[in-house]
Amino acid sequence: MTAELRFIDAIHAGLQASLAADDAVVVIGEDVTYGGPFGATKGLADEFGRHRVRDTPISEATVMGMVTGAALTGLRPVVEVMFVDFITLAMDQLVNHAAKLHFMSGGQLRVPLTVRVQGGVRGRFGAHHSQSLESWFTHTPGLKVVAPAFPGDAKPLLAAAIANDNPVVYLEHRGLYWDKGPLHDDPVDGAVVRRPGTDVTVVSYSKMVHSALAAADRLADSGVEAEVIDLRWLAPLDTATVLESVAKTGRAVVAHEAVARGGLGAELAATIQREVFTELVAPVERVGAAFAPVAAAAALEDAFLPGVDEIERAAGSLMAFGPPPP
Amino acid sequence: MTPDLPEDQLVDLLRRMLVIRRFEESLIKLAGDFDIGHFHVYIGQESTGVPALAQLQEGDLAFTTHRNHGHLLARGTDPAAMVAEILGKATGTNNGKGGTLHIASPEHGFPTTSAVTGGCTPLATGAAFAFSRRKVDRVSVCLFGDGALEEGSYHESINIAALEALPVIYLCENNSLEALGQKANEYPSSTMAAAPLTDLAASFKVPTITVDGTDTGAVHGAMAEAIDRARSGGGPTFVEALTVRWPGNRPLWPQLATGVTDLTYAWDEGAIPQDHSKWHGAQDGVLRYTRELVTAGLVTTGDVLALDGEVSTQIEDAVQFALDSPYPDPESAFEGVYA
Known about the structure:
The structure holds two protein chains of two kinds. Chain A is 36% helix and 20% strand. Chain A is of the alpha/beta class. Chain A has two domains: 4-182, Rossmann fold; 192-318, Rossmann fold, CATH 3.40.50.920. A seven-stranded mixed β-sheet of chain A has the order 3-2-4-5-7-6-12, with helices on both faces. The longest helix of chain A has 15 residues, at 7-21. By secondary structure, chain B is α/β, with parallel strands linked by helices. Chain B has a single domain (7-321), classed as Thiamin diphosphate (ThDP)-binding fold, Pyr/PP domains (Rossmann fold). Chain B has a five-stranded parallel β-sheet with strand order 1-2-3-5-4, sandwiched between helices. Chain B is globular and about 50 Å long. The termini of chain B are far apart. Chains A and B meet through helix 3, helix 4 and helix 5 of A and helix 5 and helix 6 of B.
């Protein structure tokens, strides 16, 4: 039987493997020697030394620039930003420097940097600890963005991010940390079909993939077979896998926890309608959060968070369009 | 005063200063005919950048700011590739993708120029962090103007550098309008509540040195001390060089307000015109250093003029190379987004 690991432990294992494999890898961030708020880096300082696993002051702006400078100077840093909400403080260095240095230098520079950052709604944390800001990163030329949904992908995707010669934002959803799953050695390039189906394609990533799969189960009960795609990489986007599926089903729902307006779902919807317009039998539907900050109260947070119901409803509404599936 | 260096190196410092002066003057003249965007010249600060940076060793890194041309030239970046980059040519240092504000010359120890005020402070600190992790005795120099001290990144950076005893030198070229104290009883910096600016390093227990940025020997000595401290594991140093804002930098677009530099002013006071006499007579660090070399008998006036002739030809050739170079293929605008 394959060993099962919690998502958070898969990240730990990925960091451990990369530190062991390459002396240039350093892990740096606030409280990382202690293990970080959720234990991803626990024990790494003892195992690899405080020289390579290093705490920083609460200085996100400079730490992001520091690891960028270090990446230019022979290291392969993995920086942890405690909450994605705090990355606002580091955006100058991430967007103006790390993302652009390769291009701006005419290819003279490389920035092999991994930014580990967790976010999403989980635990009534309020508007400074619950956001999903991935479209800021996917909107930035030069950044790669990855958002694993399963423990089995978490480790190889982290290894891929660290091995990459570009700055990669590795997005972790706090709500997935305690999920268990088997590890695997399968390739993690591009998107993957998590559930095959013929009637409607649900495109998602990170924690929302689980909602999409649950919605697909419900849809199946009413005779609708949904195909669920887990994007894994948000930049670059594996549009081929998405378009192939939508060309087959003729219907698409794009679902994410981030605010819908201006989100990655809008980008995907535009791509789908442009590339497979003649195959579509219904408009592309988007599921995302309302255009509001995340409120803290349980009743308000629950109201804000889109999930299984919304995906089921969106997919169901598309079935009213066009010819019945063959 | 002249730096404590062998004679050939003293002359080499003058050569580097003249390269910068003639480069910037040529650029201002070119700007009238070419749409090269906003740019900043280093005229008036050569006597800081050259002695500060010429003593760096191969592998040492420096990160610079928008007033970058002089820094790059001080360490030997090819002026022809720089003019080409500024004119947007394919032969530029960055193949036209950077322009004046982002010139990168890693082989001369300049990974990048940041056009965000304070943008290079964390990068330079991070390079020093990498040197310390890799256990190599290289140093990193962070170059910035007094304005960068108004950004939060400076304070975060020097804190980390102090905590980690990183091999980094923060060289602040204070070129605020009255930097050399022309206005009585007022500290130069106009927009910081802190004065002197070295207080902003001393509070982090980082050693500081304040130096007259028009005094080549003093700058050389201050940087030698700071570099030695960094290389021997003693951690960061904050150097404040008090420089003069060249009249041609006012208001925002460089203009040859003081004319093309006439080096005879260094030894013939009578030739100095009434306009800007204070600049030519006392404030221009290049003329001051030339005067010091001639007075000390280290070079003759003929040597100086011959050297200037060589440099001027080099810069003329650099400009011609850039003018003759092709523009980049428009398709390349979309290439190289990712490594």
